[in-house]
Fold this protein.
Amino acid sequence: MNFHEGDSVMHWTFGLGTVVRLEERTMFGSEILYYAIQIGDMTIWVPEDERLNNRLRPPTSESGFKKLQNILSGPGKPLSDDRHQRKIMLADMLKDGSAESLCCVARSLTAYRKVRTLNENDQALLKRVEKALIGEWSAALSVTEQQAEIELRRLLSKD
C-alpha cells in the first residue's frame, strides 16, 4: 500500500493522522521506507513492511462508515468475565485494525459495562477505541468531533 505526503491515514493504535514525510532508513543492512505520521502533537514512524496493512490504512469512506454504525447500536460480542481472557479476546478482535473491529470492540465493551465494572485496562482500551472512531467518523462524514462523539454515544446507548 503506497501512502504519500498529505494523505490521511488511520493508525491501528493512535487513530487518524496525516503522512507528513517518507524517509528511507537503513536497518540491519537493508533500506526500509518509513512513513512519518502526525497524530495530534505526536509524530510516529511506521515501517513499510509485511505488517503495514495491519498498522496503517486509508480512513473508511462515508458510505462504508454509515454501514458500520449498525454495529454500534447492535448487540455486542459476549466477553469473558476473566480479565486475562477478555484482554486476549479484545486484542484478537483488533488485530486487523479495521473500523469494523473498532466498532465491535466499542460495542462489546459498552455492553459488558452494563453488567460488570470495566477494569483499568478495559476502560483505557474503550477510551482509545472511541477516540479513534470519533476522529475517523469526523473525517469520513465531514462533521465536527463533538458531533461525531454525540452520535457515537447515542448509538452505543441503545439496548
About this structure: The CA atoms of residues 37 and 43 lie 5 Å apart. The beta strands are 8-11, 15-27, 30-39, 42-47, 56-57. The radius of gyration is 17 Å.
